[in-house]
Amino acid sequence: MIRSFRLLSRRRRQALTGAGVAVAAVAGFTVYHVTSSEADRPLNVEFVLGGGADGAGEGGELKISGSYAGLAAAPDGTVYLFTQEDDGMVMWQRKPSGATKRTAVSGLDEADAEQAAVAPDGSVYLAAGDLWKVNPEGKATKVVRTCRKPDPLATTVKEFCAGEITGVALAEDGSLYIGDQVNWGETASYVHRIDGDSVERVAGRPPRDGESYKRSNPAVKNGVNPAAGTKAKEVLVTDNWNSGWLASGKDGLYWRSGPGIVRIDRDGTLSPFMAAAAPDRVTEGKGPFDSAGKARDAMISRNVSDGPRGGLAAVPGRGEVYYADSGEYYRPALEGPYRWRGASSDAQKELLEKSTNGKLVKRVSDGELSSVIAGVQALATSDDALYVAVEAETGDDRSTPENWTTAVVRVGLP
Fold first, then answer.
1. Residue 359 forms beta bridges with which residues?
2. Among 33, 258, 323, 378, which one is least packed by beta carbons within 10 Å?
3. What is the pTM (predicted TM-score) of this model?
């Protein structure tokens, strides 16, 4: 696998840059620059995995040592958390009953999953540069590889490779989709469907010789704010650092395409969802779930984080879509407009106090945009719930996974 700086494990990047690592999923963080206390609506959250003081108990009573490596949730609410320990990767599984299982992962180490998805058999796909599949016993196998010279038009898994895979989603019918990009030379982003040994390009196309990457090019503009009838295979998405995340919803497949999100409809055309149409009309809102404007107007900020960059998920039972904006650094807090209620034990409070930089999660519901929680590493959804993850630094050596703690919380939705 070809590794640029951004594909290095976070432990190695931290050693090179001195950047902090984030650890567990958490809800209700406060943005650094927010000082207003206008909204008195703390988020209700529940620790479902990690956040405890020691290794005893299950679910939220456990202390999970190790740095964040991946998060996914099954439709029934079973949560999967991947962490990096000193001796290798671990997969944690927490069932709705609270029963918790720890499984060592073999065949994969030091992966940073940008996105993950749970298959019906309990296997988990990880978009971590390459596409990996981890079975319930913890054995990891590479499904789609990366290479320096990808061929996005290849039609078999044997021939196909990607510059980087950042998105993965499973549709209700079992179809497996990946969001991938070409990172060297004439860059572009794509969505591909993987079906056994076959590969189908679903969205995105390569740039033509001398073609402009500016929004004045209709193919580029239609990749963010598509005109009616735009074919998904005819758009040019070149902001590969900020694109590729996927979510499967009841109305189609959602694809983050740089500053916006488009929906790939079942007839192969695109519909605008977040279209960066008039960003100046969008406000910050006064607290969790407070409307900030129309989603069609909103623009997603460019990434400034060295951790997982994006995130996109749908809650089918509620018709809502959630995404992560990593355009600024955020920290969790027990005070302020995005404070959260639910950290009751000393261990949970210490986790928040020592947590590191994370992203802001936002919601789109009935076309309205709102902020939800800040400071998280990743988000995942079940049929009717939102889960987030955060990391906390518990030791002096950032390059050692055992000096990190990770947790997952379920966010109370209105």
1. 376
2. 33
3. 0.90
